[in-house]
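Protocol step 6 of 9: fold each sequence in the batch and record its C-alpha cells directly after the sequence line. For illustration, a two-sequence batch is reproduced in full.

Sequence one:
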Amino acid sequence: MLKVDCQGKLDIKGQKWNVSQALSGEWVQIVCVEQRLMVFYCTTLIRELDPGTQRSTIVERWVPKPVPPTNV
C-alpha cells in the first residue's frame, strides 16, 4: 500500500507517477502484473503504470451497449 501525495502522485522506487489529484492523501494498492504495475483504489483499478516506457495510463471503464433483440 502506498499513499498518494498532495499533488496526486506516487513515489515508486524514486520515480514519481501521476495517479490522480482527487486521490491526494488516500492509500492505494499496487499489484505487479508482468512488467506493469496496476494501481487500485479500494477494489477499483484506476491506473496502469509501465516502468519500461515510463507511461501512466488511465483505465477506462465501459459498459457494453445492450444488443437489441432480433425479430426472427
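Sequence two, same batch, same settings:
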Amino acid sequence: MRIVRSTETRRTATPAAVMTTLASPTQGAAPFPVWRVEAAAGTAGPLHLIDADQVWTLTAGTVHIEAGGESTDLAAGDTLIVPAGEERRFTPGPEGFTAVVAGPAGMRASMPASPDEKVDIAWAA
C-alpha cells in the first residue's frame, strides 16, 4: 500500500490553471497519474493536444469544452473522456471550475501547429 499525503502534493501554475498532482509515478503511483485542475473564470487554456486518452471529472463549477471538432458545456458531476490526439481547449464558466483528471504515465502535450514537438506534462510525472 502507498499513501500520498496532502503534504506530498505538487502545485504547478500555468496562465490558464493550477494543477495539483495528487498521485503520480514519481510518488509511487505508476502508471496512473491523477491531478486536480482549478481554473478561474476569465481564463482559457490554449488549443492543444495530448498523445494519450484522458478522463476529466468536474467536481465544481462549469466549463466549455472544445474537443475533436465538437463543443459542449460540462457541470459538476459530469465526466469527459478525451481521446488521444484530439485538439482540445477548456474555457471556465463564470464561476471557474475544478476537475480531477487521470491519464497514463508518460503522456505528452503539443500544439496543433507543431504536433511533433511534444513536451512532458509536469503534473503527471
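Proceed to step 7 once all outputs are recorded. Observation for sequence two: The chain has a mean pLDDT of 95.
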